[in-house]
């Protein structure tokens, strides 16, 4: 792209670099327009030596803000008092303040007292962390762990763990694709795109029932080529909040086995969905019990409030310990050229909390409180919506959905209205983060939703 | 189809399954054809040459098999693997000169006092939160890092032409920079010095660039092959990316002089090559943060564009916290804005946003005059201890009459010395003397102390006299 720009400099010697940039702003420089300007086949070499005043990055276009993280940026710029940030899934207290868990503070103080060093972790991360994270996910007594069949590599929270897994899939399963739910977390597609792993969607959300399109899901998983990877949300599906029932999980496992697909779980909310760490891991454990090989990406961003510490893991459950060792070695080989070895701080916090019986119990209690607050907020929102909306619309999906988010069913224009008129920030797919909602703001939100739903198309 | 659900079958079932399996059938066929190929899931001992072996499709779904059957055991990382091997060694006289992590005179890892102080402040601050950082990282950290490397009065910074994003130490900064260039830059070849840090090639290749080399180290002089360097860069296609070690070249410790840097700069600019600096030892090479940044500043000051990867692993001892920054100096401020927006698109699908802990420590130190000063003092002490080790090792080899010219030990700069020892000599030193170093003969001076210098000198002496 910049060579095209430089060629223009060659063809129109009177054009200064300043006017080139002005042109690029007016025309909206991109491949298409570069082609229009580009008259001849000037070689890149010649044009680069002429265009001394042009940036090599002239052709770089402005990327749009991230659809999720960009919401917080926009929220911060808004000066209106009534503004509400329901964009990113970060837990807030009833006072709408960020929350650092007490167990985390305790763990950090312990770490400080011990005066541990800051040496490089091994590429696969902190051993103590890897051990407790697999146990938390699968249960310490899980045969898969005891047989050494689980390879665990510390990753950069959920995103980083998914990316490592994607890189592994690209290298070892170059002909396979990943099936992702429609809809799914916005960043999943980016991760697989950048890792060059092809993906396709399976039906998931049914807007008519505001529930799970189970038949569509099963049909699409069945229709995919054998040996596909199926990305499943372990619990608290993001963005819909709609989870399969235990019976439905069994049927999903059936069809996955039938097709020799490889389950790939994204577990970002263990403990946050129901309030119980074990219950929220039951889908993963069901599949492991069946003897399936599978991948699980974990995140401690939400359940331990360690968002910014970037702590998570990729777990690969294999059919043998030998396989697990080989898989681990290859995951390391992918991590080394990405960031060499992962950050130590968050890993130590998790290892300390999960590995200490007292802190672990305390964590479970804090977890229940957080999940409980969200359930209360759901209840209040549902009540407000039902009372204030005279149309008779069924708002019970708010109660049925699970986890941090609610998929309101609002479309983009309606979501825009939420922001533009009501200063409520959310993602354009209609997802609101209940973690960012207080009981006292439920009424205001209900009014906004009702207005957007009925008065905007 | 009966699927083996729990991995437990009757022996008969196992055998039947094996006979029916694609592995067995293909193996049988291969034997009949006289073709040599290995079709069983590879054991770690087996050859790792997939182009000779045929593996059943991972989706074949045979009972009792694994979808990961064709995943072979990867070798240990050559650099980090040295520490792994060292840790396994039970010998009491073992010395780890593998990875470039600073050790005290007592042979212990060091957390700088100023780092501990900063960490105390952070952990004890009741209003501190752990919310996601922006994709580009901690804003203060970014600004301060840019100032540190480019100079507080850098025109490029003042003109808003520098975009800086927090990344995972040096590796992460190189990878993000590489991916950005692979996506947005028209020349996808990067030239790296011969030799260079072992991880560079893989980082850039996985980022999507192709890697070529330019001559750098001259084994006969154990110094810089400047003529070869200039020739090779002259031959590079216009616009090609050139990786430059800002100071304390790893693994050789051989740096260009200021005059040579200037010549390189003129050549690089005249050919329109794009410099990409790897700055992992600012302050560690000479003890002076400014002196060690001189090469980078020369390029940033001439109005041209460049990339710089910064690491705080060594100079702040923050190894495991993974703190670093990628800076891109652009010709124009509006270009910098757009470049930043595209860097976010590289980072978001990789790890969303960077870790906060290390960056907050750095920002705390850099923005406080007194803590900054304390840091420079501790940094100088580390650099001086290393310079001291160089002198001690040189003296010890001279005292033993070890054959060869060892002046390169005191001429080379930074954490590492390229001893000039070959693979066999290195293996000998590890085997017989329990001295651990990378097979290219690189030793980390930071891992030496007065007590271990004599042992190392003995090992080198033995290696040089007994193995050729």
Automatic annotation (TrEMBL), chain A:
Ranges of residues in domain Aminotransferase class I/classII large: 83-449
Sample GO molecular function, one term: pyridoxal phosphate binding
Obligatory cofactor(s): pyridoxal 5'-phosphate
UniProt key word Transferase: yes
EC number: 2.6.1.1
Top-level lineage group: Eukaryota
Catalytic reaction equation(s): L-aspartate + 2-oxoglutarate = oxaloacetate + L-glutamate
Sorted UniProt keywords: Aminotransferase, Pyridoxal phosphate, Transferase
Pfam families referenced in this protein's UniProt entry, alphabetically: Aminotran_1_2 (PF00155)
Family matches, as Gene3D superfamilies: Aspartate Aminotransferase, domain 1, Type I PLP-dependent aspartate aminotransferase-like (Major domain)
Gene Ontology annotations of biological process type: amino acid metabolic process
Further comment: In eukaryotes there are cytoplasmic, mitochondrial and chloroplastic isozymes.
Family stated for the protein in its record: Belongs to the class-I pyridoxal-phosphate-dependent aminotransferase family.
Quaternary structure, from the entry: Homodimer.
NCBIfam families linked: PRK09257.1
PANTHER family to which the protein is assigned, alphabetical: ASPARTATE AMINOTRANSFERASE (PTHR11879), ASPARTATE AMINOTRANSFERASE, CYTOPLASMIC (PTHR11879:SF46)
The name this protein goes by in its record: Aspartate aminotransferase
The organism of origin for this protein: Canna indica
Phylogenetic lineage: Eukaryota, Viridiplantae, Streptophyta, Embryophyta, Tracheophyta
UniProtKB/TrEMBL annotation, chain B:
This enzyme's EC code(s): 2.6.1.1
GO-annotated biological processes: amino acid metabolic process
Transmembrane segments: none
Domain Aminotransferase class I/classII large stretches: 93-460
Keyword Transferase: yes
UniProt protein name: Aspartate aminotransferase
A GO MF label: L-aspartate:2-oxoglutarate aminotransferase activity
Keyword Transferase applies: yes
Entry GO CC: mitochondrion
Family: Belongs to the class-I pyridoxal-phosphate-dependent aminotransferase family.
Entry-linked InterPro entries: Aminotransferase_I/II_large, Asp_trans, NHTrfase_class1_PyrdxlP-BS, PyrdxlP-dep_Trfase, PyrdxlP-dep_Trfase_major, PyrdxlP-dep_Trfase_small
Reaction(s) this enzyme catalyzes, per UniProt: L-aspartate + 2-oxoglutarate = oxaloacetate + L-glutamate
Quaternary structure note: Homodimer.
Miscellaneous comment text of the record: In eukaryotes there are cytoplasmic, mitochondrial and chloroplastic isozymes.
Keywords from the UniProt entry: Aminotransferase, Pyridoxal phosphate, Transferase
PANTHER family per UniProt: ASPARTATE AMINOTRANSFERASE, ASPARTATE AMINOTRANSFERASE, MITOCHONDRIAL
């Amino acid at each position: 792209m910049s060579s095209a720009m430089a060629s223009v400099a060659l063809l129109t010697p009177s054009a200064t670099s300043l006017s080139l940039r002005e042109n690029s702003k007016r025309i909206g420089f991109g491949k298409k327009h570069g082609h229009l300007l580009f008259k001849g086949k000037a070689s890149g070499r010649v044009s680069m030596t002429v265009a001394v005043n042009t940036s090599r990055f002239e052709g770089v276009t402005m990327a749009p803000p991230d659809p999720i993280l960009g919401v917080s940026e926009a929220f911060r710029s808004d000066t209106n008092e009534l503004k509400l940030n329901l964009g990113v899934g970060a837990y807030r207290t009833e006072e709408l303040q960020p929350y650092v868990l007490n167990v985390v503070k305790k763990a950090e103080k312990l770490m400080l007292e011990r005066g541990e060093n800051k040496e490089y972790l091994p590429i696969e991360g902190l051993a103590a962390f890897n051990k407790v994270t697999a146990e938390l996910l699968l249960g310490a007594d899980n045969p898969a762990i005891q047989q050494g069949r689980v390879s665990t590599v510390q990753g950069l929270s959920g995103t980083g763990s998914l990316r490592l897994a994607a890189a592994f899939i690209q290298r070892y399963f170059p002909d396979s694709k990943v099936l992702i739910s429609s809809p799914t977390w916005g960043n999943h597609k980016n991760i697989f795109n950048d890792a060059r792993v092809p993906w396709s969607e399976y039906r998931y959300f049914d807007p008519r029932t505001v529930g799970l399109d189970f038949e569509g899901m099963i049909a699409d998983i069945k229709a995919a080529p054998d040996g596909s990877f199926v990305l499943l949300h372990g619990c608290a599906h993001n963005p819909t909040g709609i989870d399969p029932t235990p019976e439905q999980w069994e049927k999903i496992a059936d069809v996955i086995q039938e097709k020799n697909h490889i389950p790939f779980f994204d577990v970002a909310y263990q403990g946050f969905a129901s309030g119980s760490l074990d219950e929220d891991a039951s889908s993963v454990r069901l599949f492991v019990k069946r003897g399936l090989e599978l991948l699980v990406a974990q995140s401690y961003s939400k359940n331990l409030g360690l968002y910014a510490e970037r702590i998570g893991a990729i777990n690969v459950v294999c059919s043998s310990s030998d396989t697990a060792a080989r898989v681990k070695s290859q995951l390391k080989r992918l991590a080394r050229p990405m960031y060499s070895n992962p950050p130590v701080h968050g890993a130590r916090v998790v290892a300390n909390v999960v590995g200490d019986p007292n802190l672990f119990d305390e964590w479970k209690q804090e977890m229940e409180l957080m999940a409980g607050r969200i359930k209360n907020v759901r209840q209040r929102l549902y009540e407000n919506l039902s009372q204030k909306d005279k149309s008779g619309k069924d708002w019970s999906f708010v109660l049925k959905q699970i986890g941090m988010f609610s998929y309101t069913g609002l479309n983009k224009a309606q979501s825009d209205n939420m922001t533009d008129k009501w200063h409520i920030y959310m993602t354009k797919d209609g997802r609101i983060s209940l973690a960012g909602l207080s009981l006292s703001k439920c009424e205001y939100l209900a009014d906004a939703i009702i207005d957007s739903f009925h008065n905007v198309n | 189809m009966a699927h083996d659900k729990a991995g437990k079958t009757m022996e008969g079932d196992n055998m039947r399954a094996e006979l029916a399996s694609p592995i067995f059938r293909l193996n049988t066929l291969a034997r009949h054809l006289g073709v040599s190929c290995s079709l069983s899931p590879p054991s770690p001992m087996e050859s790792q040459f997939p182009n000779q072996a045929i593996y059943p499709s991972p989706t074949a779904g045979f009972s009792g098999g694994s979808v990961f059957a064709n995943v072979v055991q990867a070798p240990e990382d050559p650099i980090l693997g040295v520490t792994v091997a060292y840790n396994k060694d039970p010998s009491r006289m073992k010395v780890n000169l593998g990875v470039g992590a600073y050790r005290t005179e007592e042979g212990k890892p060091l957390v700088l006092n100023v780092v501990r102080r900063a960490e105390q402040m952070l952990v004890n601050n009741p209003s501190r939160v752990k919310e996601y950082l922006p994709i580009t990282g901690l804003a203060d950290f970014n600004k301060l890092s840019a100032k540190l490397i480019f100079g507080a009065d850098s025109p490029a910074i003042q003109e808003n032409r520098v975009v800086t994003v927090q990344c995972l130490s040096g590796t992460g900064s190189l990878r993000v920079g590489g991916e950005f260039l692979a996506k947005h830059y028209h020349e996808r070849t990067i030239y790296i010095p011969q030799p260079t840090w072992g991880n560079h090639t893989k980082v850039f290749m996985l980022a999507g660039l192709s890697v070529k080399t330019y001559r750098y180290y001259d084994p006969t002089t154990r110094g810089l092959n400047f003529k070869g360097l200039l020739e090779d860069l002259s031959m590079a296609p216009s616009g090609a990316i050139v990786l430059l070690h800002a100071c304390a070249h790893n693994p050789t410790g051989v740096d260009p002089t200021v005059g040579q840097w200037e010549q390189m700069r003129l050549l690089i600019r005249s050919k329109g090559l794009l410099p990409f600096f790897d700055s992992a030892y600012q302050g560690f090479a000479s003890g002076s943060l400014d002196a060690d940044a001189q090469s980078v500043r020369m390029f940033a000051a001439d109005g041209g564009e460049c990339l710089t990867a910064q690491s705080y692993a060594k100079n702040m001892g923050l190894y495991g916290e993974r703190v670093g920054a990628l800076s891109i100096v652009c010709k124009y401020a509006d270009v910098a804005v757009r470049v930043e927006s595209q860097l976010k698109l590289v980072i978001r699908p990789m790890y969303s946003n960077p870790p906060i802990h290390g960056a907050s420590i750095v920002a705390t130190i850099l923005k406080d005059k007194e803590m900054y000063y304390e840091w420079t003092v501790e940094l100088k002490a580390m650099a001086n201890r290393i310079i001291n080790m160089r002198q001690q090792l040189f003296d010890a080899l001279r005292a033993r009459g070890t054959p060869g010219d060892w002046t390169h030990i005191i001429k080379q700069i930074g954490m590492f010395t390229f001893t000039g020892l070959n693979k066999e000599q290195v293996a000998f030193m590890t085997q017989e003397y329990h001295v651990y170093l990378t097979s290219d003969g690189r030793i980390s001076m930071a891992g030496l102390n007065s007590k271990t210098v004599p042992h190392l000198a003995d090992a080198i002496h033995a290696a040089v006299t007994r193995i050729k």
